[in-house]
């Protein structure tokens, strides 16, 4: 099949915007617990009315500070209650939110603030403020910096600032925003290494919200709860958080994944949203603990039974013997695994990178199906997703309501619908390259089966996606490292891996001089000196320089020095010295594997 379209859902009208839901909830469901905030280890309720009052107060402060309709306000913070509060306040003030990852380097902060012409920025910590101040002298449009933590918290400061702004003025501003206006500009890594600003409208995100509610009716209903721990600068976490608020699902935030298990235990969510790396960690931790406690054989048998039980669901159901084994292991093993997710978790949603069939079968087999989806920033998060009504392990599901998928002649996945963005900010060339007659060229390769399930088979573009779902543009890192005289070629690796690493080759012409300078034997080969402390220190310095350009999640954590340079004869580089990544990946597969074993 070359194309599949999902039926349209509830349409978005021209006069709607994302801030509407805050007051709709407050007026009709004022006592519903919209959030539970973690304060000094205790979860405190925030009702729909409380939230609306706080959003209004912060929005009035933005208006009083001179933030106008359509102005850009950046937001740099870990996942926390104030992130969502400020996001909605920006929309209520008629402005546009520009998220910045809290791990971003000063140069990344500069690029986003300058390209978006942000008028104000809300940061979380003193370190974030310092990153802004380091580049503020080069920013002509930035007028305000507010800080969430510290002596004068942003929420309090803005609330006081807006005390004289009337409710009427606020709501006039809020209601003046239409569905086709830009709601947010989300910067995403491009092949050049310079992040592109994806403009998402209120219509884009409202269409995504309605599609998600339609896809997950059993999850997105009042009384359920969701613990949000992915970065809210990532469109997946943000779209699901907004959806939860719209569906009156109680939302909690936790910024530190190190505390995730205890937080899951106290918050006890109905479902979670995560990238595959989180599910891998849950599985690996449970397996390692079982083996360390001498219960490895029981766990392995339980794992095999869970996978078999899930696989049987696609073939008419499990037989009597398998059901009996599954029931036994449910008491011995599966119940404890579900308890690690808080004990009430009935499902999970995964995106950002492929999950893997065995892991998907394992979690479905223990009673926590993981609904794997697919999408990009340009599609407002999920364009395709598996659901309880339409679930096929190994695929990323069918398109969400109102979305069409097409497979181009070269196998590239194309997407169209209300969730698809309209343009990149200040970048008409990139927009023209990405969109053809409303069809978005994803850069990914895929296949559609006869029932509309999409399977992603590869990547047409070079962007690396780590197991944590972080998009990394390799060229900027590689070019910086190659500037070191000792280095000839570099290839950054890490697609579907837990971290970014690099393969490095040595410049054969410079190598003899380097050996003489450092007192190394003249006859020593690269292979013999690959682990030499002086050589590795020099390359590490080049890696450190490259890492200054990117966030911690994008930084190179390990590298290996190869015995031989990449050659045209070996098919590893083109005549113009461009890397043939697929060939290098194949030729040096064992070296790449070794990087992730050490």
From TrEMBL:
PROSITE patterns tied to this protein: AMP_BINDING
One Pfam family linked to the record: AMP-binding
GO molecular function: long-chain fatty acid-CoA ligase activity
CDD domains for the chain: VL_LC_FACS_like
AMP-dependent synthetase/ligase domain: residues covered: 24-425
Gene Ontology CC annotations of this record: membrane
SUPFAM superfamilies: Acetyl-CoA synthetase-like (SSF56801)
Keywords assigned by UniProt, alphabetized: Fatty acid metabolism, Ligase, Lipid metabolism
Lipid metabolism keyword on record: yes
Family: Belongs to the ATP-dependent AMP-binding enzyme family.
PANTHER family in UniProt: AMP-DEPENDENT SYNTHETASE_LIGASE DOMAIN-CONTAINING PROTEIN, LONG-CHAIN-FATTY-ACID--COA LIGASE
Protein name as annotated: Acyl-CoA synthetase
Biological source species: Amycolatopsis echigonensis
């Amino acid at each position: 099949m070359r194309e599949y379209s999902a039926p349209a859902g509830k349409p978005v009208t021209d006069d709607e915007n994302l801030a509407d839901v805050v007051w709709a909830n407050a007026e009709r469901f004022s006592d519903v617990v919209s959030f539970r905030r973690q304060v000094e280890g205790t979860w405190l309720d925030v009702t729909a009315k409380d939230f609306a009052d706080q959003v209004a107060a912060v929005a009035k402060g933005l208006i009083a500070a001179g933030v106008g309709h359509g102005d850009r306000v950046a937001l740099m913070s870990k996942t926390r209650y104030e992130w969502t509060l400020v996001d909605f306040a920006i929309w209520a003030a008629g402005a546009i939110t520009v998220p910045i990852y809290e791990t971003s380097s000063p140069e990344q902060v500069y690029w986003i603030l300058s390209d978006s012409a942000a008028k104000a920025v809300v940061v979380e910590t003193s370190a974030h403020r310092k990153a802004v101040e380091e580049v503020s002298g080069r920013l002509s449009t930035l007028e305000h910096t507010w800080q969430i933590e510290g002596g004068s918290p942003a929420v309090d400061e803005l609330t006081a600032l807006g005390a004289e702004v009337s409710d009427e003025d606020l709501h006039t501003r809020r209601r003046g925003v239409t569905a086709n206006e830009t709601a947010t500009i989300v910067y995403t890594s491009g092949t050049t290494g310079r992040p592109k600003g994806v403009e998402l409208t209120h219509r884009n995100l409202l269409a995504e919200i309605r599609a998600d509610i339609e896809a997950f009716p059993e999850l997105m209903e009042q009384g359920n709860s969701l613990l949000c721990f992915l970065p809210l600068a990532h469109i997946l976490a943000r779209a699901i958080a907004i959806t939860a608020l719209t569906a009156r699902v109680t939302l909690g935030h936790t910024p530190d994944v190190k505390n995730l298990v205890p937080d899951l235990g106290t918050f006890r969510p109905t479902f979670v949203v995560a990238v595959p790396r989180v599910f891998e960690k849950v599985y690996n931790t449970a397996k390692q603990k079982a083996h360390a406690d001498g219960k490895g054989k029981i766990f392995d048998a339980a794992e095999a039974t869970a996978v078999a039980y899930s696989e049987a669901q696609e073939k008419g159901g499990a037989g009597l013997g398998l059901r009996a084994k599954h029931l036994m292991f449910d008491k011995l093993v599966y119940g404890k695994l579900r308890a690690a997710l808080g004990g009430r978790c009935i499902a999970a949603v995964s995106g950002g990178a492929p999950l893997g069939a065995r892991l998907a079968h394992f979690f479905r087999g223990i009673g926590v199906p993981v609904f794997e989806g697919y999408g990009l920033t340009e599609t407002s998060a999920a364009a395709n997703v598996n659901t309880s009504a339409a679930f096929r392990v190994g695929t990323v599901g069918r398109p969400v309501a109102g979305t069409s998928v097409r497979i181009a002649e070269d196998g590239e996945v194309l997407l169209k619908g209300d969730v698809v963005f309209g343009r990149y900010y200040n970048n008409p060339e990139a927009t023209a390259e990405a969109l053809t007659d409303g069809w978005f060229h994803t850069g990914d390769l895929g296949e559609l089966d006869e029932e509309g399930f999409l399977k992603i088979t590869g990547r047409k573009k070079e962007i690396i996606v780590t197991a944590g779902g972080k998009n990394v543009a390799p060229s900027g890192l590689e070019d910086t490292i190659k500037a070191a005289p000792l280095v000839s070629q570099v290839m950054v690796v890490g697609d579907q891996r837990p971290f970014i690493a690099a393969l490095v080759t040595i410049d054969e012409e410079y190598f003899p001089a380097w050996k003489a300078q450092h007192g190394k034997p003249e006859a020593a080969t690269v292979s013999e000196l690959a682990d030499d402390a002086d050589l590795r220190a020099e390359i590490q310095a080049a890696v450190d320089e490259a890492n200054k350009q990117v966030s911690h999640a994008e930084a190179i954590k390990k590298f290996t020095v190869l015995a031989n340079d990449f050659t045209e004869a070996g098919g590893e580089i083109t005549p113009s010295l461009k890397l043939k990544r697929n060939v290098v990946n194949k030729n040096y597969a064992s070296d790449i594997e070794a990087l992730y074993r050490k």
